[in-house]
Design brief:
About 35% of the residues lie in helices and about 20% in strands. The chain is built from 19 helices and 21 strands. A six-stranded parallel sheet has the order 2-1-3-4-5-6, with helices on both faces. The chain has a five-stranded mixed barrel with strand order 17-18-19-21-20. A three-stranded parallel sheet has the order 7-10-13, with helices on both faces. The protein binds iron/sulfur cluster (SF4). Iron/sulfur cluster binds next to helix 7.
Amino acid sequence: MRKKFFLETVGCQMNVLDSELVVATLRKAGYELVQDPKQADVILFNTCSVRQHAEDKIYSALGQLRRHKERFPHKIIGVLGCMAQKDQELIRERAPHVDVICGPGQLGKLLHLLQAVERTRQPQLAVSLGRAEAHRPEVQESFESYDPLREPELRSNHFQAYVRTQFGCDKFCTYCIVPSVRGPEQSRPPHEIVAEVRYLVEQGCQEITLVGQTVNSYHYRFGDGRLFRLSDLLYRLHDIAGLRRIKFITNFPRDMTEDLLQAVRDLPKVARYLHVPAQSGCDIILRRMKRMYTVSFYRDMLQRCRETIPGVAISSDFIVGFCGETESSFQRTCDLVATAGFKNSYIFKYSPRPGTKAYELYPDDVPEEVKRRRNNDLLAIQAQVSLADHRRFIGQTVEILVEGPSKWAYKLRDRISSVQADSGLPDQKSSEKEEFLQLTGRTDTDHIVVFDGAMRLVGKFVLVQIEDASPYTLFGRYVGLADVPCDRIVLGNALTNDPDSAGQGSPLGLADAVGSGATISANPTASEPRFRDWNSSSETSAPPQAPSRRLPLPLV
Ligand code: SF4
């Protein structure tokens, strides 16, 4: 009988991609993926260490499994990913019933680890070297590449895929644990990435998203000394016939180079969407975070992006309540959000992480209720900005890639089914249900659009006329298939990007609106979530989607 495995994933796009590859490997080895951990012979957690909240949830889940493991000692429990790399000893202490601990740089060994547990009934550990444990080349080598050939049927859909451009990070922002748990920054050779994308496209993939902790710092040096940058990679990928859209996340503000912006401008397949986390609008806090730029540099960078790429949409990340953040520091962040014209922002409350510089150097001195209030205030400001941004689309026809039914559509369908069951009415035929589903998709500027349409449109590029807008979603009417890419629709920026306006209230009067207590509540929506994002449940702003949506976590 086939062995069954369950895999729960939390965290960023890197983890989503890692999990996809783990699923592919285990299924290839004959395992069957199941949705209920109780049915599984192997229960795995792909973990995140960016916030305490995410770690607490994993320990809680492991605690709940203790009794289960006592009753079924042959079952294997594994902790994968960043927590495994960071907290090997702690996991063994707090959850001694865990059989496998496997860091993100060792996932290629997972199958062997599982087999070793079966054989020996002894716990197995595979982690990479810590950054202080050896010289850089050895540490680098200990983080192994894990990007086996992709199998379309093992992805959540056949038309979209993440593709890794690099591992690790060398920026060392003081609040961030990523450089420790994911190791030194290493760019993959271009030929590997191009071959992987070609393979994905042959399998029907139309949209790829290049992912890296700081994707725009991608650089690969050939043996003869030539440098290959992200812009070069975009040109190479753009030539692949059949590929319709290329996205890349997440960007570091200092690495937003002219060649990259020009490539986005000049290559029609490259999405006009840049996620560039600012993290704070206060220079003192940015210095404490060791972000290596000032607010004025960031504003100039925004201006360069918008001057070079007409119609580009930019989103950001912010951390509120970082150590030493005063009311006036926070006010500067509010000013930045009110005036910068972000499409959306992901907003997080600071969570001190052992092992980071900030944890060592600065007291976590902003009380939790203040963090919460600032989080809500910033969300409210961003919601007003997002609404203005979204309203510009009303009356326009946009091209979107249809991703699937909206979450609201799933809820409605379940509700109809339960009402029918209660009333004794016959169930609708599934084909009838499909005809009336609310579908969701994204423009090349990453704006979320919902419209009513048939399931057969999922995975296709279609044209939708926008009729209404909320802060997170555009609502439209299906116009037809976009068989060939339509010309880019370029809308002017509704918001001023004039750095001189900082601190003087936004041109939309947002400061007044917020000051008077007027808020727009965040009502994010999402297409069918592919993983549970425990971090985002209470701590992030949610961008987009009609009635509800999973938010990617920030990579920078
Ligand atoms: S926040 Fe981003 S850029 Fe900074 S250290 Fe972490 S992963 Fe690197």
